[in-house]
Design brief:
The complex is a heterodimer.
Chain A: H1 2-31, H2 36-43, E1 47-49, E2 55-57, H3 63-86, H4 91-104, E3 111-113, E4 119-121
Parallel strand pairs in A: 1-3
Antiparallel strand pairs in A: 1-2, 3-4
Chain B: H1 2-8, H2 14-22, H3 24-28, H4 32-54, H5 71-92
The chains are: A alpha+beta, B mainly alpha.
Chain lengths: 134, 97
């Protein structure tokens, strides 16, 4: 019985850690959200999703917004590059595929680039996408 | 009737036309080999007449080089292949998408 009690202490600790871990991870996940400047510019239709998988400026950006969005595009390119290499595809191919998905995921009111190149406001209807998109 | 028409369809051979025009039996009475031969000649003449009426079909090489656009198909295939992975990448990097 005494041995059992000795064993149960680490088990209890492990259980407590398993419960506590999501609580610790939750704030980290919350941090992985859009930059407020980017989020508001996106909602306001100042920036939009381009067909090539990067963000574009619908209206001339303020220097502050430009630095935020340019930084996001650099990070996107780094992610595309890494993932494309793993998939034995080109960065452009991976970025284009992501662009298809990102345009599909835009919310009503946000801007996206239509196949003819013009900025288009997303409505409740499906967005106009390149014929190569799935 | 068919044989009769075939016999009549040989304008270049006067004798044959006479024989065929006289009676159908005369035409039918020919040896099979000759009949087949006549048929071939008739078909040939018909084809020749049709060609003469409709004119020649000419095939010309285009001035510009023939470019086959493979880019579109390759892209679509690639998009199909990458879509699943790209979707996960977007979900895992919400701060930049």
């Amino acid at each position: 019985m005494a041995r059992n009690a000795a064993f149960s202490a680490p088990v209890a600790f492990a259980l407590a850690a398993a419960v506590a871990l999501p609580l610790v991870a939750a704030p980290v996940a919350a941090l992985a959200q859009r930059d407020p400047a980017y989020a508001s510019a996106r909602a306001a239709g100042q920036v939009g999703e381009k067909m090539d998988g990067y963000l574009g400026y619908v209206t001339p950006p303020s220097p502050a917004l430009k630095s935020v969005v340019d930084d996001i595009n650099l990070k996107r390119r780094a992610v595309y590059s890494e993932k494309a290499q793993a998939q034995k595809a080109t960065v452009e191919e991976y970025a284009f595929t992501s662009g298809c998905l990102l345009i599909a995921q835009t919310q009503p009111g946000e801007m996206y680039q239509a196949p003819n190149g013009t900025w288009t406001k997303r409505t409740s209807a499906p967005p106009q996408r390149d014929s190569r998109c799935l | 009737m068919n044989a009769f028409v075939q016999c009549l369809l040989l304008p270049s051979r006067g004798l044959t036309v006479h024989r065929g025009a006289a009676t159908i039996a005369g035409c039918d009475g020919q040896k099979r080999g000759a009949d087949v031969k006549r048929k071939v000649v008739a078909v040939g003449l018909l084809a020749g007449a049709a060609a003469a009426l409709s004119g020649c079909i000419s095939v010309k090489a285009p001035d510009k080089p023939i470019v086959i656009e493979l880019n579109i198909n390759i892209k679509q295939e690639v998009v199909y292949r990458l879509a699943g992975d790209a979707s996960q990448t977007i979900d895992k990097n919400k701060d930049i998408f």
